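Tutorial handout. Part one gives the primary structure; part two gives the three-dimensional structure as tokens.
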Amino acid sequence: MIDKLATSLGRRDEVPNRELAKEIAAENDTAAVKELAEHLFDKDKNIAADCIKTLYETGYIKPELIAGHYESYIRLLKSKNNRMVWGAMIAMSTIAVIGADKLYPYTGIFAGLLKTGSVITIDCAVKTLAGIASAKPEYAHGVMPALFEHLRTTRPKDIAQHSESILPGVSPEFRDEFAGILRARESDLIPSQSARVKKVLKKLGV
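Part two.
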């Protein structure tokens, strides 16, 4: 599989990695996924980056194929290479719902990234936490406080997108608090952002 990655082909674009992901998903190729996961810590940073890219692209299509390697994604969150950190977070956002039992113990780490991560890392931490919350009521109790605190304090330009990401994890128990936070921040939003938030509230049924 490594010889099919963009770097191995001398390519600077991501097309080979996306095509490889489609191939892996179509063939249900667990051996290929295992090989890619083993190279996430390759000394060649370009190979490692191609591997996480191909894995999360596979996760978009067939998350169950990459879910078993969640411990490697967690390890990558400590990487000094930001590309690997947000790549790992994207991978986990694709498996959050089906892998909630495995990922829930790490919710404190994900919540911490809401304050310290890059833009992509934060976006995917929100999606990951919401996915975990949607899996079980007890997980929602552990996760929603961090997501709600994030919504209260995040920059206005992110409120609409993050509220859309959080929505699938909002059970009836948390509906009113979620709606209240969004309404409290409405004055921070420009018209286009406000319109998106109103759509979220409509889907929420409030």
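Part three, for discussion. The domain at 1-95 is CATH 1.25.10.10 (Leucine-rich Repeat Variant). The chain has a mean pLDDT of 96.
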